[in-house]
Amino acid sequence: MTNVAIVYYSATGNIHKLAVAAAEAAEKAGAQVRLRRVAEIQEATIAPNFTEWTEAFQEHVGGSSREVEIATQDDLDWADAVIWGTPGRYGAMAGPLKHFIDQTFELHARGGLKNKAMSSFTSTGTQHGGQESTVLSLSNVFYHWGAIIVPPGVTDPIMVAPSNGNPYGVSATSGLQAVPGLLAQNVTEDNLKAVGYQTVRTLQVAEALKQGLNK
Predict the structure, then answer these.
(1) How far apart are CA 96 and CA 38, in angstroms?
(2) Inter-CA distances, 202 with 67, 108, 121, 161, Å
(3) Which stretches are annotated as coiled coil (predicted)?
């Protein structure tokens, strides 16, 4: 059985929704699944004047997301495939996820991340808010590890649905505007289907790698 870890950081709930959909798709496909969120690295929201951000932060650290276990390096070591989720922060991954990745040095040094299938998804406030570059910021890490990057590409009709269309990794648009009071959670059904497809595709590549490398 193939081991799949879904490792994510979610500040307002959008990435959490996508991560849960990814985990459900992997389980349905017959994988062993670990759904894990990375720990917060600060005690307060980064946007204290945005009521919705504050409420979402409190929910993330003390609400429904607290039922999701905190990710550890063992989860990466255990996994054959890792699906990563992060909101975009100025065109790159969020700080808490980068902090977690910075802790992989010892695992990487012994080759513990090479040949694992990796894929990633994101959500940004606007459609052109750095979605592709956020996914690519994670791919830069995967290159160093010697991991196998699995993009969803344009390999299924769901990837060209109006709210998807990103061949690098599924991306949602939250609807966040640059003024307080306008934070919306706009993960669509197509986004959820697409991240499920991306997850299963990555799982299939991981299975092929296991079989091929074990011959």
Answers:
(1) 7
(2) 25, 20, 12, 20
(3) none
Helix, coil or strand: residue 63:
coil
Structure tokens at 27: 């389980």
d(CA 3, CA 43): 32
| pLDDT of the residue at 11 | 83
Query: Per DSSP, what are the bridge partners of residue 123?
Result: 87, 172
**Per residue in 149-184, pLDDT tens?**
999 999 999 999 888 878 999 999 987 544 444 455
CB 131 within 8 A of CB 14: no
Give the pLDDT confidence score for residue 198 in this predicted structure. 98
Q: What are the residues facing 32 on neighbouring strands?
A: 3
Strands 81-89 and 92-93, sheet pairing: antiparallel
Who contacts 10 (Cβ-Cβ below 8 Å, separation ≥6)?
16, 19, 37, 60, 65, 85, 87
DSSP per-residue string spanning 161-173: STT---SSS-EEE
Average pLDDT rounded to a whole number, residues 193-213: 95
Q: Is the pTM of this model over 0.85?
A: yes
Alpha-carbon distance of 71 to 42, in angstroms, equals 16
- Using only C-alpha atoms, what is the Rg of the chain? 16
Is residue 27 predicted with pLDDT exceeding 50? Answer: yes
3-state secondary structure of 212: helix
pLDDT at 215 (0 to 100): 66
Q: What gap in Å lies between CA 58 and CA 62, rounded to an integer?
A: 6
